[in-house]
């Protein structure tokens, strides 16, 4: 079977599919992508199923190649720096990776995560129906661990007609995180009206403490009207817990299955990726919306993903220094002193 070979991978690079659903009742974490929309865009641009296994690239970056046959590849997510054999590509791109060529995805101007999908999907053994890597339990991926140099990831058969390089047009990828929409509750009654207003106003700063399990916020202290302990109940991705110290914690992809702190609000599904892509130090605020608005926002995402993803051929006008240095640009020489 054709394989994608990892030449280098920084910290935090894992294999993720749509996640391990249906097992929270047994205490099994869902995992899956931090930015579900970007993950789906990368897959759909290649004709894969939206939830197919792909590589989630952290700020640590990755370098990959293929050795036996060309592979269709797509990258989408934050504004990372993407190069193919030194030639700069858009941050959201489809390309044909030839044997011996090197694709590099590095941290760029914005965003925390990029997704590298392969036509046919990554084909590792499933654990409880999913290839999603969850590091704390060692499930999924190649042995439940981070990707590293030397890994060889088997790839399924390509079903689409990937060409490239080309730029993916997905306007919803360019989503600033300054205002995040939330649904109040389910325990917003544990907070007085003025405290809930302060929660919405912020401003909140994304802390350095975050990881795939949770996003920690720094800002005004939120006091509890009815205490900060509740009987543990189930938590969804995007649930915003407020522990005793009064600083909110947004639970993310690797969240625990239950929690015992009041949840003042929950980030709507369409804004989970926007929050996940916000780097430490980013300032955000929240806006409460209705259930109908949350459903409509998610429906717009799904409608976009249900149709063909537009990919425009690249019109190269500039080349990166790395690309130019890797090529022989001199086809001969002349003697500038000759007077013929």
UniProtKB/TrEMBL annotation:
Query: Pfam families from the entry?
Result: CT_A_B
Transmembrane stretches, start-end: none
What the entry lists under InterPro entries is as follows: CT_A_B (IPR003778), Cyclophilin-like_dom_sf (IPR029000), PxpC (IPR052708)
Q: Could you tell me which SUPFAM superfamilies the record lists for this protein?
A: Cyclophilin-like (SSF50891)
Q: Which residues form the Carboxyltransferase domain?
A: 25-304
Q: Does the keyword Hydrolase apply?
A: yes
Listed A to Z, the keywords are:
ATP-binding, Hydrolase, Nucleotide-binding
Q: Which PANTHER family match?
A: 5-OXOPROLINASE SUBUNIT C
Mind telling me what this protein is named?
Biotin-dependent carboxyltransferase family protein
The lineage, from the top, is:
Bacteria, Pseudomonadati, Pseudomonadota, Alphaproteobacteria, Hyphomicrobiales
């Amino acid at each position: 079977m054709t394989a994608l070979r990892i030449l280098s991978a920084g910290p935090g690079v894992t294999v993720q599919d749509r996640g391990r659903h249906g097992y929270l009742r047994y205490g099994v974490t869902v995992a899956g992508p931090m930015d579900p929309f970007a993950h789906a865009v990368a897959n759909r641009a290649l004709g894969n199923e939206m939830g197919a296994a792909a590589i989630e690239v952290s700020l640590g970056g990755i370098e990959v190649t293929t050795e036996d046959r060309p592979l269709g590849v797509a990258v989408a997510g934050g504004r990372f720096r993407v190069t193919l054999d030194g030639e700069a590509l858009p941050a959201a791109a489809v390309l044909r990776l030839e044997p011996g060529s090197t694709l590099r995805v590095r941290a760029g101007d914005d965003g925390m995560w990029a997704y590298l999908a392969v036509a046919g999907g990554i084909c590792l053994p499933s654990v409880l129906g999913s290839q999603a890597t969850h590091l704390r339990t060692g499930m999924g991926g190649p042995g439940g661990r981070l990707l590293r140099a030397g890994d060889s990831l088997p790839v399924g058969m390509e079903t689409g007609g990937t060409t490239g390089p080309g730029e993916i047009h997905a306007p919803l990828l360019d989503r600033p995180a300054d205002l995040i929409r939330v649904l109040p509750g389910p325990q917003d009654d544990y907070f007085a009206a003025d405290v809930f207003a302060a929660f919405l106003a912020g401003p909140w700063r994304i802390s350095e403490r975050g990881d795939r399990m949770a996003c920690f916020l720094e800002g005004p202290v939120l006091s509890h009207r009815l205490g900060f302990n509740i009987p543990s109940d189930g938590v969804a991705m995007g649930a915003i817990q407020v522990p005793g110290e009064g600083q909110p914690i947004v639970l993310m992809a690797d969240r625990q299955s239950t929690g015992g702190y009041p949840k003042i609000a929950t980030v709507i599904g369409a804004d989970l990726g926007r929050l996940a892509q916000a780097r430490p130090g980013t300032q955000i605020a929240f806006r409460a919306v209705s259930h109908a608005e949350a459903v409509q926002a998610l429906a717009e995402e799904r409608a976009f993903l249900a149709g063909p993803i537009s990919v425009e051929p690249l019109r190269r006008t500039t080349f990166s220094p790395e690309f130019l240095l890797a090529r022989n640009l001199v086809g001969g020489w002349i003697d500038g002193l000759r007077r013929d």
